[in-house]
Design brief:
The chain has about 160 residues and is mainly alpha-helical. It contains 5 helices and 2 strands; from the N terminus they run ααβααβα. α3 (about 80-95) packs across α5 (about 130-150). The radius of gyration is 38 Å and the shape is rod-shaped.
Length: about 160
């Protein structure tokens, strides 16, 4: 399909106003704009624009982004670590069986009474201390669990 003179002039004016690409590519496009399209539509496909100059090759560059944080992160239930940390001191204050089964029952009952509090921390760091209110909740749940296990041991 042959282009009209009006279409060719629009392209030429656009290319002169918007210079982009190397000079060789611009010269090729101006020549192509002056010449009528070859028969059979063997020009550039629609949307391809100006062909690159023969001496230029696209250069691929690898972009490396440094790792911001190489530490291994873990999800920790802070309440669970608080209960496990206070287990021995609570068992010392109350006369209760210290077998493995009873200890696990106390921990399970106490954790079921407490709301979970999860944090993402580096694997090497210990979980932070709880505020006084949460600490009181942990102690209360532990005492209730010890009293229940002491009353009804499962061994």
């Amino acid at each position: 399909m042959a282009r009209t003179k009006k279409e060719i002039d629009k392209e030429l004016m656009y290319k002169k106003l918007m210079p982009s690409g190397p000079r060789g590519a611009r010269a090729l496009s101006e020549e192509a704009a002056r010449e009528p399209a070859p028969p059979g539509g063997q020009g550039l496909p629609a949307g391809q624009g100006v062909p690159p100059a023969p001496h230029q090759k696209p250069v691929g560059r690898e972009v490396k982004v440094p790792a911001l944080d190489n530490r291994q992160m873990v999800v920790v239930n802070v309440m669970e670590s608080a209960v496990l940390g206070k287990l021995d001191s609570v068992l010392e204050r109350f006369t209760c069986c210290r077998c493995d089964r009873c200890k696990k029952d106390i921990v399970a009952l106490a954790l079921n009474k407490l709301p979970p509090k999860y944090m993402v921390l580096p694997a090497s760091l210990p979980p932070p201390d709880l505020n006084p209110q949460a600490n009181a909740q942990v102690v209360t749940a532990m005492i209730q669990a010890v009293l229940k296990v002491r009353q009804f041991p499962r061994h």
